[in-house]
Design goal:
Layout (H helix, E strand, L loop, with lengths): L1 E8 L6 E2 L7 E4 L2 E9 L11 H4 L5 E6 L4 H13 L5 E7 L14 E4 L6 H11 L4 E5 L11 H8 L5 E3 L2 E2 L6 E2 L2 E2 L6 H5 L12 E3 L4 E5 H7 L8 H14 L4 E3 L6 E2 L10 H13 L7 H13 L3 H11 L2 H18 L7 E2 L13 E2 L1
Length: 362
């Protein structure tokens, strides 16, 4: 005869996971109750279950944000499920608008977030809910094919690098990105003209582009995930510059099959994006915030018949608040990476307030 003993363990409260899979977990009062089968007291002495049988941790967590376009999300999910690697979990982070019409809850973990969440906020929620040592990000609409993850996952788990960039083709197949070009990040002029992606697999990459890439989960947590204060087109560049500042390497998965983007261009920049790029350059020492630098950038843009872009860039060079917040994230990451491997990592919130238990990850 057996009886069931319940031990309560804490889980993240910030995200709602729609399915915990086959593992022996059930909700009880906002926490999770772990069930253990133990013998009836008197005389039986059964051997303890091995730890790996109590909870199987996957090697890879695949995070896909849903951004109010069901067709794009489902195109990505179909390609991933058809070419799903062994020992992996798929997490779809959405704002409550996706109804799962195909009943994928047995294959996919759904995480619901507020409706106002940005792309980077959705990705950070998926990062906090993931449990694998390796993270893969695929934006909705990106399609993968056979053999897309074996090489980058093997590279990531078999070395000490922080990330692996995947080749990404545009919908017209006219351009292929090989990650955020690390050599370009030290030249403010290149970033100002939006020449950001590595154009060849021979070019060094500072980080994957946001649309697709592999990351070491512990590194992402130490960095605070993606910067939610920056636009989507800037967040991956900030991550690349942070990795470079911390001397963390990214490698290009040259043998992986290319992912295909639904867009005809790799990156679209607004005036706000250009301003944030300029602030990013100053925060990492690639540009100065002097009035002479701002006026020089504006003059060069006027000569190139791009006065609005020059004005946005000049404003970013002088935006001390944004520059300061980027520097605080970098300093936070340095402190977090010095924490013992067994210690908890706190996701940076971008202000002086202490993050709550709901936004911590181990």
């Amino acid at each position: 005869m057996l009886f069931i003993r319940f031990d309560t363990v804490t889980v993240l409260q910030g995200s709602k996971r729609g399915d915990f899979g086959p593992a022996p977990f059930s909700f009880q009062g906002g926490a999770v109750a772990k069930r253990h089968l133990v013998p009836d007291p008197p005389s039986h002495h059964w051997p303890a279950l091995p730890a790996q049988e109590e909870c199987s941790v996957p090697r890879l967590s695949i995070i896909v944000p849903h951004r109010r376009n069901d067709a794009r999300l489902e195109a990505t999910l179909v390609s991933v499920l058809e070419n799903r690697p062994e020992d992996s979990e798929i997490l779809v982070v959405h704002d409550g608008s996706y109804r799962d019409p195909y009943n994928l809850s047995d294959e996919v973990i759904f995480i619901e977030e507020p409706g106002s969440s940005s792309t980077t906020s959705l990705l950070n929620s998926g990062l906090q809910a993931a449990c694998a040592p390796a993270i893969c990000v695929l934006l909705d609409g990106v399609v993968v094919s056979a053999g897309w993850c074996e090489a980058p996952l093997s590279t990531l788990l078999g070395s000490q690098i922080a990330a692996v960039a995947l080749p990404l083709q545009t919908a017209t197949a006219r351009r292929t990105s090989w990650g955020v070009g690390s050599r370009l990040l030290s030249r403010a002029s290149a970033t100002q003209t939006t020449r950001i992606e590595a154009a060849s697999q021979r070019d060094s990459s500072g980080a994957p582009v946001l649309a697709c890439g592999f990351y070491r989960r512990k590194i992402l947590l130490a960095l605070g995930g993606w910067n939610t204060e920056l636009e989507e087109s800037v967040a991956d560049v900030e991550l690349a510059m942070t990795l470079a500042a911390l001397e963390l390497d990214c490698q290009v998965a040259a043998t992986s099959s290319a992912c295909v983007s639904p867009h005809s261009q790799l990156r679209k920049l607004s005036a706000t994006s250009l301003s944030q790029f300029a602030s990013l350059m100053v925060a990492h020492g690639a540009a100065t915030s002097s009035w002479s630098s701002a006026m020089g950038a504006l003059l060069r843009s006027c000569l190139q018949a791009q006065p609005l872009a020059g004005l946005a860039w000049s404003r970013g060079l002088r935006n001390s608040a944004t520059i300061r917040r980027i520097q605080l994230r970098l300093n936070h990451a340095r402190r977090q990476l010095s924490v013992e491997a067994s210690g908890p990592l706190r996701v940076h919130q971008g202000d002086a307030q202490t993050s709550t238990a709901a936004r911590r990850a181990a």
